[in-house]
Amino acid sequence: MNDPTRRRFLFSTGVTSVVLSACGFLGATARYLSPNVLYEPPHRFPIGSPEEFPPGTATFLPEHRLFLFNNPAGFYAISSVCTHLGCNVRHIVGEGFACPCHGSRFDENGQVVHGPAPEPLAWFGLSLSPRRELVVNTRQPVQPEYRFRV
Amino acid sequence: MGRTIFRVGWPRTDKDRAAAMISSLVLHIHPAKVQRHSLRASYTLGLGLTSAYLFGVLIVTGVVLMLYYTPHPLDAYRNMKDLQFVVTFGPVLRNMHRWAAHAMVVVVFLHMCRVFFTGAYKEPRQFNWVLGVGLLLLTLGLSFTGYLLPWDQLAFWAITVGSNIAGYAPGLGAEIKYLLLGGNVIESGALLRFYVLHCVILPLLAAMLIAMHVYRVRKDGLSAPPAAEPPPIEEMAPGRFPPSTRSYGLMALADRPAQPVVESEPDDEVLTWPHLLYREVLVLLAVLIALHAAALLFNAPLEEIADPTRTPNPAKAPWYFLGLQELVSYSALIGGVLVPTLLVLALVLVPYLDPVPRGVGVWFAPERSRANRIFAALASAAVALTLVGMFFRGPNWAWVWPWTP
Ligand code: HEM
Ligand code: FES
After folding, report:
1. Entry pTM
2. What interface predicted TM-score (ipTM) does this complex get?
3. The domain that contains A137 carries what CATH number?
4. Closest CA–CA distance from residue A4 to any residue of chain B (Å)
5. Mind giving me the DSSP string for B37-87?
6. Which residue among B49, B111, B123 is best mutated to probe the pocket of ligand 1, counting the most ligand atoms within 8 A of its Cβ?
């Protein structure tokens, strides 16, 4: 009854079990909070036939948050999401891009000129669908030399 | 029947009033008697009390707002328009909730300054200061999560910027942001998460912390200069009730023929009812009048519906985060994560970095002038950065003078 060693052993076993099960529960809850399936916009999507973007134009596609350029070397797509904190940058012809939130500036290739943005604007890979539509893939980062010819 | 609810009835003598203070759950948040020092409006400025009242108003108005609100991008904004234009007294309740929330940020901050400048965080109240820092963070968290709910442009872009700052936290930043938004974009999942945080999780945490905070104030008594503090336990004569009014039973006030309690009390203690209680009711009245006036005179803003494709220029965070946004416009990692984390850490550690129990219970004690100056410098820097963000930043976050159109 009064064996202190036994009492201590039982006590610490009890406390350890309570702590372990609490940790297990908290861990499971933390994992539960992270969703497995997202009902978010797809990362590959068609934006229209190449003819809709005449040569020499820069088109802002607000619903996809990107700019599509068509210059003599081919098509390319630059994200409009500022790499600082996610505002939409505006395109200023001949100058590049400007962000309204904290004043970051980017050149025509999306490289940071000045401001708090830590990285250049993202470039996305392009492809052509069987229905001859331009398709953007936001999971396919490409370099600023990238041009897509149809 | 009244006696089954209120055991002492409406008290007509001091003894009955003291009995009411002790026997009622609500009233016994107070001691039966308090020091005159702690009644002085110039000491506490009633700021802690006002914070608690504002929290109460926010709970009441918030719960009734919930009855007209659906946390979904397709409904939320329409619900706000309904509250504004269709629901009878809808604008009043919405305005009250909004202005009380803004006021709470200001008042809690001022309460913290009061506690610092009176040295009230020193022994034995160190941990209550830490609880207070938790309450400050919860107050900001409640305001921030509530900001998204109207689903207008102001809301959407403030939360875009805010949640991306979280993404800069070293190591777990991306995970924190993913958990906060329940995904990668601000959409229905994010709105639901902010709603649950704002209406359930954070208010519950805040209510629990406020209970602990106030309980400790009750147990430790309000801070006072050493002269007004009760003598340590050893000095008390056996058989005599301690002159302190912190925790004791009714015996202290019962008539004991041999030794009238009144004579052994220090002169500077007075009965809580009426002296403190009536002052508290007065502050409540002032808070309610001010909030009603604000709610009737000024409408809470509601901009156009959230449009993820169009960033307003400039896109500003809620005003109490504009200091942070100003820092972030220099560097997201240093300004958005490092500086705030260090500041919070420093705040938490204040009572342990400055443990010498000197200059407690008076404003700006000369013995504490160094600590007070450091704190004043940091607090003014925070206020100054916030003002710069509010009034001196225009389109593209460029510097503007507030008086130039
Ligand atoms: C939701 C926010 C808060 C509420 C509702 C609250 C409530 C209160 C109340 C009712 C008092 C009694 C005295 C008075 O009215 O001044 C008090 C005292 C105190 N508060 Fe707070 N408080 C809050 C936030 C804070 C913060 C942010 C801090 C500091 C970081 C803090 C630290 C303290 C300390 C140390 C005391 C004891 C002061 C003394 O004994 O003189 N509290 N608080
Ligand atoms: S989000 Fe573009 S500069 Fe901050």
Report:
1. 0.87
2. 0.84
3. 2.102.10.10
4. 35
5. HHH-HHHHTTHHHHHHHHHHHHHHHHHHHHTT---STTTHHHHHHHHHHTS
6. B111
